[in-house]
Amino acid sequence: MNGGGGRRWFDMVQPEAFDSQALRGALGRFATGVTIITCLDGSGARVGLTANSFNALSLQPPLVLWSLRLASPSLVAFSAATHFAVNVLAETQVDLSRRFASKVADKFEEGVWHAGLGGVPVLGGCAAVFECELQAQHEAGDHQLFIGRVRRLADLAVPPLLFQGGHYRMLGEIL
Ligand SMILES: Cc1cc2nc3c(=O)[nH]c(=O)nc-3n(C[C@H](O)[C@H](O)[C@H](O)COP(=O)(O)O)c2cc1C
Predict the structure, then answer these.
(1) What is the pLDDT of residue 113?
(2) What is the DSSP annotation of 84-153?
(3) What are the phi and psi torsion angles at 83 (to 5°)?
(4) Ligand 1 center to 143 CA (angstroms)
(5) Looking at residue 143, what is its pLDDT?
(6) In angstroms, what is the span from residue 53 Cα to ligand 1's centroid?
(7) What CATH superfamily classification does 34-163 receive?
(8) Ligand 1 atom with minimal separation from the 51 CA
(9) What is the pLDDT of residue 15?
């Protein structure tokens, strides 16, 4: 059996042989949704970024996780914030995803935002929203891992935006 990448299933790449580009490439095979994660900084200003490291962690209690690169200018705000919101983007929100992954001066100028729990920005038109209280955070490698306890959620019947192989995508067929 030969996969699309030209490697056979038994051609495993050993730790000494892969670089960060190979690691990124392999990780990119894993399809994810796309979120904008938001909080307020110490002065009450809105902070947010595009993140696909979001994932489910626990159902009972309801916990979710995501990670932020340590070099991010948003690290100070998220480390100190008591709450954050995970806005799961709809497929119509790709422009917002690009905006929140950029260095634009005021990311929040676009989109319909309202204040959720703790005043944290919540985005209208999302596929889902998880409003969280920070439960724990850990430094791990070059990222800070955030674990949140879900305090409120919204689940809308709109198709989510996907990210895979470095490209935005839409849902395909149900198998
Ligand atoms: C699809 C996608 C997913 C991303 N996921 C993450 C992530 O999980 N964690 C992270 O730190 N940056 C992630 N980024 C990069 C940030 O969105 C980008 O670096 C942004 O500028 C960070 O905001 P900052 O300027 O406050 O650091 C992602 C970017 C894209 C396009």
Answers:
(1) 98
(2) EEEEE-BGGGHHHHHHHTS--S-GGGSS-EEE-GGG-EEETT-SEEEEEEEEEEEEETTEEEEEEEEEEE
(3) -135, 150
(4) 11
(5) 98
(6) 9
(7) Electron Transport, Fmn-binding Protein; Chain A (2.30.110.10)
(8) 5
(9) 74
163 lines ligand 1 (CB under 6 A): yes
Q: How many C-beta neighbours within 10 Å does residue 86 have? A: 25
- Quick one: which atom of ligand 1 is closest to the CA of 68? 11
In ligand 1, the atom with minimum distance to the C-alpha of 168 is 1
Q: Determine if ligand 1 sits within 6 Å of the CB of residue 150.
A: no
Q: Is 4 in the pocket of ligand 1 (CB under 6 A)?
A: no
Residues of the chain with pLDDT under 70: 1-7, 9-10
Query: Where exactly are the structural domains of the chain?
Result: 34-163
CA atoms within 13 A on the CB side of 122: 17
